Amino acid sequence: MPEPAAFRSHSSHWGAFDAALTPAGLAVHPDAGDPAPAALLRNVPAALDERLRVLAPYARRGWLERGPGPDPDRGRDEYVRISWAEALDRAAAELDRVRTRYGNTAIFGGSYGWGSAGRFHHAQSQLHRFLAVAGGYVRSVNTYSSGAAEVLLPHVVGDHAPIERPTTWAVLAEHTGHFVCFGGLPDKNAQVNAGGVTRHGMAEELRRAKRRGARFTLVSPLRDDLADDLGADWLPLAPGTDTALMLALCFTLVERGLHDEEFLHTHCEGFPELWRYLSGSVDGVPKSPQWAEARCGIPAGKIVELAESMAAHRTMITLSWSLQRSRHGEQPLWAGVALACVLGQIGLPGGGFGHGYASMAGIGAGSLPFPLPTLRRGLNPVREFIPVARVADMLLHPGEEYDYNGQRLRYPAIRLVHWAGGNPFHHHQDLARLGRAFTRPDTVLVHEQFWTATARHADLVLPVTTTLEREDLGAARQDAALVAMARVSPPLGEAKSDFEILSGLAKRLGVEHEFTEGRDERQWLEWLYESWRAKLPPEADPGLDFAEFWRKGRIELREARPEHVLYADFRADPHRHRLPTPSGRIELFSRRIASFGYDDCPGHPTWFEPEEEPGFPLTLVANNPATRLHSQLDHGAESAGAKVAGREPVRMHPGDAAARGLSTGDVVLVRSPRGSALAGLVVSDAVRPGVVQLSTGAWFDPTAPEVATCVHGNPNALTRDVGSSRLAQGCTGQLTRVEVVAFRGEVPPVRAHEPPVPG
C-alpha cells in the first residue's frame, strides 16, 4: 500500500495552503484557520501543468540569426531551444554590450511584483538588485492598480495613509452606520493580497455591520460589486461619472446646512476655492443634483436623499481603486476626499473615507507595527524613470518630452528590456500598440514560467520556477503569520529560480559576490529570518530559530493592530498632528497642483465631460477577474470553468442584448477604435443598460488578426493607452467605448494556451 502524500506548508497571494504531489496530481488543502478560503486556490495545480510551461531556455530565431536590433518579427517568430550555458553567455554579453556602448540608461528593468508571495523570491526585487549591482537601470514608478492615487494623495493628504493605514474593518463593523461604496466592495478582489493572507475576513466584518443595523449604498454600474446579502441600495450610475455625483452631494450638504463648517475651517485648506466652483461662481454652472442627474443618470431626488442619510449617520465613504483607473482618474478620488471633509466625520470611528477597501484582502485588516524579512535591492545609480503605465510610449518615442507631477521629463532611449515577474501583455492598454513597442529595442530578455504573450515577444526566454518548486518566506504587513513556503515539487524541466539565473549572469559580468553576498538560497532565507528576528522588540520575538520555524511551518506574528482609525490624532489636534502637506491640513485646493498649469488636472476636484467616440455607444468596464489574480493561471480550473465558448465572458444588459439580437452563449465581436476581441456573451440584469463588462486577464491571443486583435477576450485589445492626466500619467484601462455585435463566420480556435514550441 503506497505511503500517504506528505503535505507541505505553502503560501500564495490568494491564501496559505498545504500541498502535496499525489498520483492524481497536485493536491491543495486551504489553510485550516481561514474562515473563507479563496476559490482561486483551485487554479494552483495548473502551475505544474507541463504543457504550458517553458521547460528550457529558448532564443528567437531571427535574433539568433541576425543579431540584436529592432525587429518587426518579434512577437510572431519561431523559437530555438538552446542550452543554459549558451543562454546565459548570450544574455550577459548583450547586457554588457548595451551598458558599455550606450550606458545603463539604455537598460529597462521591467518587472511587476505579483509573481510570488515570498519575501526572497520576489522577482522584482531580485531583478532590480541584480541590475543595480551591474551598473543600474531605468525603472518604473507607481502601479497599474493605483497609479493616479499614488501621485495625487501626497498632494491632498501628504502621504499614502488612506491606502496603507485605513480605518480597520473591526472599527467599521462596530461603528459605521452607512457605507457609501463608490465602485463597490467586491468579494472577488478581497480574495488576494500582496504577500499572502491567512484569514479572509472582510465578508464577515461587513455582515457583522449589517447585523448591527448598518446601511449600504452601492454606487456602481455593476450590481454585484457588493454582496447581495448586505441588502444595498443600488445606484447604477453611468461609468466614469462618480465625480459628478460626489460634487452634487457636496453641493447639497452645504446648501441644506448639513455640512461641518468648523471641520472645513480647522482641518482643511481651500474650501472657499472649491465652493466657488461648486456653487457655479467660476463657470456659471452650480453642481446641483439636477446637474449631476443629467450626467450620471441618478435622479436628483435620490441624490438629495443620499446626502441627507450620509449626514444623519456615521458614514464611511469607500473609494475603489477602479475609480482612478480612467481618464481624469485623479478627480473621483479627490472629490471623494472632499465629500468626506464636507461631512466632517474624518477621524471619527467608522466615519471618513478609505481608498482601496476590497481592492486587496489586507486593506483594512490592520498592519504589523514592525517590518518583515525583506531582500535589500541596493542603490540604483541610474536616476531616470517612467510612470509604469507609460512603457509603450517610452519604447515608441525615445527622447520625447512629457509631463509628470510638475516635472518635464524625457523618455530614455532603451536598447535592452530585461523583464522578470509580471506580464505586461496583461496589465498594459492597447496591446497591439504594446506589441509594436516591443519590436523597437535591440533585445528583449524575459524570465517566464509559461508561454505567455510576454514570453512570445522575447528574444531570450529563460525558464523560471514557480513558487511550488522552491523555498521561501511568505508574509504580508497586513497578515499575522509568517509561513515557511516549503518546496512541493522539483523544478519542471530545466527551470531555475530568478536568483539562480541572475547569479549566473552576475558571475559572467564580474559582480557575483555583490549580488549573492556569498550565500545560496537556503542561506539567504536563514539570514533574512534571523536578521529580522534580531530587530524585533522582545515581546514580538517568536522564540524560534530558523530551523525550528522551518520544521513548524508557520508562526503567528504578535502585536498586530486590528483597530485603527485613520486621522484620529489629526482630528483631535490638527496643530500638533499636522499632515505632511504644505498647509498641514487636507488640501481641497492645492496651490502646488494649480501651479503646474495642467488643464486636465487643475487645483481642486473638477468634473470633466467624458471623451466621446462616435460609433461606439456602449461603455466597457474592464474590471479585475473573479476567477484568477490578474492573468495568473488563466488555464487553471477556476478560471477555465468560467469561460464561455472557450473565451472570456462579456456581460451585457438584456435590453442591449435584445436590441442586437444576442443571447447568452453567443460568440460576439467587441470593437473599439483601437482593436477588437472575441468573447462569450452572458446576458445579465446585474449590468446597467449601456454597459458591458469584460474582465482583464485572458491570455492575449492575436493568432487570427484578420478576425480580431484578440480571439480570447482580452479587453486590453480595446483600451486606450493614454495617461490619467499630466499629473499622474496613471493607467486608464478601466473604461473604454465599444460596440458589440454577433460574430459571423467560422470561429477561430483559441491558441493562447498552446505553447509555440514542443515541450
Automatic annotation (TrEMBL):
Residues 53-508 form the Molybdopterin oxidoreductase domain. Keywords: Metal-binding, Molybdenum, Oxidoreductase, Periplasm. Pfam families: Molybdopterin (PF00384), Molybdopterin_N (PF18364), Molydop_binding (PF01568). Residues 10-48 form the Molybdopterin oxidoreductase N-terminal domain. SUPFAM superfamilies: ADC-like (SSF50692), Formate dehydrogenase/DMSO reductase, domains 1-3 (SSF53706). Gene3D superfamilies: 2.40.40.20, 3.40.50.740, Dimethylsulfoxide Reductase, domain 2 (3.40.228.10), Dimethylsulfoxide Reductase, domain 3 (3.90.55.10). Its cofactor is Mo-bis(molybdopterin guanine dinucleotide). Residues 618-729 form the Molybdopterin dinucleotide-binding domain. This is Molybdopterin guanine dinucleotide-containing S/N-oxide reductase. It comes from Amycolatopsis dongchuanensis.
